[in-house]
Amino acid sequence: MLDINGIVSLEMRKSKYDSIDILLDIVKKEYDVENDEKKSIDSRTGIFITLTMATIVFIFNNANNIIHIVTDKGEVYFYALYVILVLAVSGIFIGLLKFVTVASINGYAKINMRDIFYQITLGKDNASMLAYIQYEKIVDTNRDINRNRYKILEDGITVLKWAVLLFGVVYILQLFF
């Protein structure tokens, strides 16, 4: 039956399924899917860190122009643009912090081959069952980690979008006023 966590018990798995190898193949494919998702998130994170750093370099290279734009327009206009500019720069650094956080999250689980090798000596069904159980736990763990990383990545992208939009507002406003 089901154990406390709602997981099919080992005894039920052995008695219900003629071949645990089918389940093992399925869970291996899920493991590969989660591993590919990890690589995709890592790739996107690297791209966004690069884009964010390029934006920061652009801002600092053009800091004098931006300051002149903001200070030449009068006191009220100055404060409005200054607030927008501070929000934009803050957003860029918050986005960068989120991307670095995603890149630094580790903890992906891997198969413990020693246990499986030991079980092979006891019989193929035991080894396949142990491998299946390990893969199942690992897939669940890695899926949770990927979801967490993806959520942080999405937050960083959202903040970065707003920051770029605010920089656009500063440049557009200076053209009209």
Would you summarize the structure shown here?
It contains 6 helices and no strands. The chain is mainly α and 177 residues long.
Structural write-up:
With 177 residues, the protein is mostly helical. Helix content is 85%, strand content 0%. It has one domain (19-176). The model has no long low-confidence stretch (mean pLDDT 80).
SSE map:
Layout: H1 10-16, H2 20-61, H3 63-71, H4 75-104, H5 113-122, H6 124-176
Computed Rg: 26 Å
Order of helices and strands: HHHHHH
Range of strand content:
under 5%
Shape type? rod-shaped
How many separate structural domains?
1
On the 0 to 100 scale, the average pLDDT is 80
Main sheet attributes: strand count, strand direction, barrel closure: none
Q: Quick one: how many beta strands?
A: 0
The helix tally amounts to 6
By secondary-structure content and strand pairing, the structural class works out as mainly alpha
* Intertermini distance: 73 Å
Helix content: over 70%
Q: Unreliable runs, pLDDT <50, ≥5 residues?
A: none
Question: What key phrases describe this protein's structure?
Answer:
177 residues, mainly alpha, 6 helices, 85% helix, 0% strand, rod-shaped
